[in-house]
Every structure is written in structure tokens, then in C-alpha cells.
């Protein structure tokens, strides 16, 4: 059964996938992703999104795509699996050193005190061959965070239910959210040379039917979570105000805007000189 965090993540999937497409298209001339490339993606969604985009864009598919083993995740689309060479790592294992040409990752929540992110960045560095490229997208600002915390305050300091607390801890960033300097430092500690690291800001605009679906999903989750507290619908007016404020102030009246960092780094060593 999907968790509350999974529900929000799934609702944002179409915009997130369009976001990935735009990043890859912008960097395509320098990516050098060919039929000989060996790609490592950090989840099934990234692998599927990449394969679909390459296929629809009439680009060559890579020689192989490696994904980690995660029993909680869905299996890759059989239609896409038939046209690609998919390798699933054993549980807990990582790609061999110097075996990957491209690494793709998305970090929905990155705090500067998160050791797992540092471990992931080092794994990316060591898995890449010289001149291998990593593209890592990191959430900088999630409007759902602001909305949820605003609704929390409506309860007048009352302790949130376990369902609601789990949602805010899993989906939304708290104090210590990473800056561009933090990401550069992270890349440098992993082994990348700062001269081969680029960090830029991008955003995802969630609008139209997808925005309506997202609103319905957030309302459903909040109704269940706040109902456990005995608040019933007392929070709804505050939710409406917070939702519209996010659309007006950050989404230019067109939707909810998720702001992200995009880190592009090349592994460089003496063999590249």
C-alpha cells in the first residue's frame, strides 16, 4: 500500500519526468550518450523516463542501463525492458569502479547533515570511468512543504498525527536544506574537481489537470491525517489560502512551482589530461 509520501511523489511524476527531459535536452550535445554508453540510474522511474525519452527523440539507446535492486519499487515496464539491456544489481551492491559512463540521480530531499547523500555521491564518482558524466537533480524548494506546514499551524501547536508527521518528514525539506555551495562541496568531497562541476537552478511548474490531481491527493491525505486529530474540516480554509498563495507568489498565477538544483559533473583524473 502506498504511503502518504509515495502518493505525493506519484502525483508529481508527470512534471518531474518533463523536468528530466528538459535537462537532458539542454545538455545533450555534451553528454555524449551513445549506443556504447553504460548508464546507471538510481531508480526505476529514471530508467523508464530516460528510455522513453531516447526512444521518442529517435536517439540511440545505451549499451546498458543498471539500476539498484529495491523490492519496494515497481519493476521496469516490460515494453521498455524488451528494447534495452537492463541490469539489476544485487541488493545492497553498487556498480563496479570505473564501469559507468553516465550516472543519473534525483534527490527529493537533501539536508546538509544527511550522510546517505554523501555516500551516494562517492558511489557515483567511483563508478564512473574517466570523463564519465553525472547529472544529479536536487529539490531546493517544494511548495507542498510550505502548504503542509501552514496547515499544521492551524491546529494551534497541537501535536500532528503520525501520518501527517511522517509526510512532512519524508516529503518536505526542513532546516539545513542544501545550497548551491553545499552541492559543490559535496561533489568535491566525493572526488570531483570543482572545475568540472556545474550547478544551476531549474524549476518544475505543475499546472492544468496535473495540478488538480495533486490538489485532490493532498486534500485526501490531509483530511485523513487531520481527522485523526479530531480537527475534521477546520483546516480547509487555511489550506485554500496557502494553496492559492503559493500559486500567486511563486507560480505566477499558473501553478505550483518546484525549484531544483541541477548538478552536472565530469570525473577527471590524470588519464584525461
Rg result: 20 Å
The tally of beta strands, per DSSP, is 7
Tell me the number of helical segments per DSSP (H or I, 4 or more residues long). 10
- Overall helicity: 40-55%
Termini gap:
51 Å
Taken together, the total number of domains comes to 1
CATH topology: Rossmann fold
- Unreliable spans are 157-175
Q: Give the H and E element order.
A: HHEHEHEEHEHHHEHHE
Specify the CATH class.
Alpha Beta
Averaged pLDDT: 82
Largest sheet: 7 strands, mixed
Description:
- With 273 residues, this protein is an alpha/beta fold.
- It has one domain (4-31, 94-272): Rossmann fold, CATH 3.40.50.
- It is built from 10 helices and 7 strands.
- A 7-stranded mixed beta sheet has the order 3-2-1-4-5-7-6.
- Helix 1 packs antiparallel against helix 9 and helix 5 crosses helix 8.
- It is globular, with a radius of gyration of 20 Å.
Layout of helices and strands, plus pairs?
Layout (H helix, E strand, L loop, with lengths): L3 H8 L1 H19 L6 E4 L2 H13 L7 E4 L10 H6 L2 E3 L11 E8 L7 H13 E14 L1 H12 L7 H10 L8 H11 L6 E10 L1 H21 L7 H14 L6 E11 L7
Notable traits:
globular, about 270 residues, 7-stranded mixed beta sheet, Rossmann fold, 7 strands, alpha/beta, 10 helices
Amino acid at each position: 500500500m502506498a504511503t502518504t509520501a509515495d502518493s505525493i511523489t506519484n502525483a508529481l511524476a508527470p512534471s518531474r519526468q518533463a523536468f528530466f527531459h528538459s535537462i537532458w535536452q539542454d545538455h545533450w550535445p555534451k553528454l555524449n550518450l551513445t549506443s556504447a554508453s553504460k548508464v546507471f540510474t538510481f531508480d526505476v522511474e529514471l530508467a523508464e523516463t530516460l528510455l522513453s525519452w531516447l526512444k521518442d527523440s529517435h536517439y540511440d539507446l545505451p549499451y546498458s542501463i543498471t539500476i539498484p535492486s529495491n523490492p519496494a519499487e515497481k519493476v521496469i515496464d516490460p515494453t521498455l525492458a524488451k528494447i534495452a539491456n537492463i541490469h539489476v544489481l544485487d541488493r545492497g551492491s553498487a556498480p563496479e569502479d570505473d564501469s559507468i559512463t553516465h550516472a543519473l540521480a534525483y534527490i527529493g530531499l537533501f539536508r546538509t547533515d544527511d550522510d546517505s547523500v554523501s555516500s551516494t555521491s562517492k558511489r557515483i564518482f567511483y563508478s564512473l570511468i574517466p570523463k564519465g558524466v553525472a547529472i544529479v537533480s536536487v529539490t531546493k524548494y517544494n511548495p507542498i512543504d510550505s502548504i503542509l506546514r501552514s496547515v499544521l499551524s492551524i491546529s494551534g501547536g497541537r501535536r500532528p498525527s503520525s501520518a501527517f508527521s511522517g509526510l512532512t518528514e519524508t516529503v518536505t525539506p526542513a532546516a539545513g536544506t542544501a545550497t548551491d555551495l553545499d552541492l559543490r562541496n559535496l561533489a568535491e568531497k566525493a572526488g570531483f574537481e570543482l572545475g568540472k562541476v556545474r550547478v544551476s537552478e531549474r524549476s518544475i511548474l505543475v499546472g492544468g489537470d496535473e495540478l488538480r490531481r495533486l490538489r485532490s491527493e493532498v486534500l485526501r491525505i490531509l483530511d485523513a491525517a487531520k481527522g485523526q486529530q479530531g480537527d475534521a474540516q477546520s483546516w480547509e480554509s487555511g489550506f485554500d489560502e496557502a494553496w492559492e498563495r503559493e500559486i500567486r507568489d511563486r507560480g505566477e498565477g499558473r501553478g505550483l512551482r518546484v525549484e531544483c538544483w541541477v548538478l552536472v559533473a565530469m570525473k577527471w583524473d590524470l588519464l584525461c589530461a
